[in-house]
Amino acid sequence: MNNSDRRSFLKIAGISIGAGALYRVAPLLGAGKAGAAVSDALKRSNGEALRPFSFVQLSDTHVGFEGPPDPLGTRAFERAVETINALPEPPELILFTGDLTHDTENPGEHAARLKRFRQIAGGLRVQNIRCVPGEHDAALDGGALFREQLGPTSYSFDHRGVHFVALDNVSLGKPEVGAAQRAWLEKDLARFGSRAPIVVFTHRPLFDLKPEWEWFTDDGNDVMNLLARFENVTVLYGHIHREEHRMIGRAGHHGARSLVFAFPDPASGAEKKPLPFQKDRPFANLGIRTLTSTGGPGAPGIDDVELSTAEFAGTNGIQQLLKKGAFA
User: What confidence score (pLDDT) does residue 286 get?
Assistant: First the structure.
């Protein structure tokens, strides 16, 4: 996303600033007389005033995955938990956008993998943790195990004046939200005015990013049509194992990096083949990226975070390498 696009995103979205994982929600709508009116309206509709906060998106942890191209297992996930816990300003909310586990046809083993996911995620010093399933979590059983251990696969909630919507586009065994869930979504959104800040999080992208690589949702356009009347819509998704940013209409769509192997750029990659593991940079294309807004007209600052381990990089213990000193 170039600087111009970033500015456009901020102007259009108004409330959400983010790329990758750490999002700082700045209620720019709260400034001025018009903004105050919007904030008051939101408070009446969901009971909470629009106030600044930060949240983190994590995606595609694939607990249970072993072997090439990524020999790290859950190390990136565990390190991400440590990194988040070390943030000077703890986030209030964590969103997991699917593929929490790697699939297996052995129900006992799959349950053990989901339990391990819960153990690692339970180390986060954040109370509000929300998840949606990916196809590796739910395609084989229609989401039954996910619902048993984590609750509903689609739901909504309000947080500090922002309306969050979790959408399940994997449990039907195909890339689809489905008519029943769309009907629920339409009803769920009915109480909000057009300027309400909406954050949708899901696993697959809600647009045709690369259909031949299964990077799409069959009824994604129908879902976005339900959101079309809103001025401030942010869609966060996983599945593609790489960072991706698009403005489509008035909605910003942001794909997050995974916590296992990365996939190539769909615009230049010849095939959907994981990027090779780099022993000297074991967490290349993983890790965390933060984007921070000053609230002014300039582009947000970006800090890339890479992770390193003793085994693969010769350092003493697991370390966090900050390219630009984000968390110092």
Answer: 74
